[in-house]
Design goal:
This protein is mainly alpha-helical. Helix 1 packs antiparallel against helix 2, helix 1 packs parallel to helix 4 and helix 4 crosses helix 5. The N and C termini lie far apart (42 Å). The protein folds into 2 domains: 67 residues; 48 residues, no CATH class.
Length: 118
């Protein structure tokens, strides 16, 4: 694999946010990408930056879903980002809760928006 092929994969991955279509667009396999970046630390850094970019895109989409009051997105966000406030799918009664949060979705869009800002 060449650096040009790797760069094509990175460009497609950052654009589409999915590895399989990016592999196909660059004409490579996941194993080839892994081998290429493991042999080149500078390419591994570029790959990690692409992963961070895709994660940022997904977080933005999740926030938009939350702002439109998508209940599944809200639950996911609170389960993963609100653990220190007592949210989460696993409850630990030994953990001290510092905050209690009540969210009323109807007519509270400004308060909910403030919750996710920052």
């Amino acid at each position: 694999m060449t650096l040009t092929t790797f760069n094509k994969f990175i460009k497609e991955y950052k654009l589409k946010g999915q590895k399989i279509p990016a592999y196909a667009a660059a004409g490579v396999t996941g194993a080839e990408i892994k081998e290429f970046i493991n042999a080149r630390p500078e390419c591994k850094q570029v790959y990690n930056e692409a992963e961070d970019h895709v994660l940022d895109m997904v977080e933005d989409a999740l926030r938009k879903a939350c702002f439109s009051f998508n209940q599944t997105a809200l639950k996911y966000y609170l389960d993963n980002k609100g653990k220190d406030r007592g949210f989460g799918s696993s409850y630990d009664p030994t953990r001290e809760q510092e905050h209690k949060v009540t969210i009323s979705v109807e007519g509270q869009s400004d308060e909910l928006s403030n919750l996710f800002e920052g």
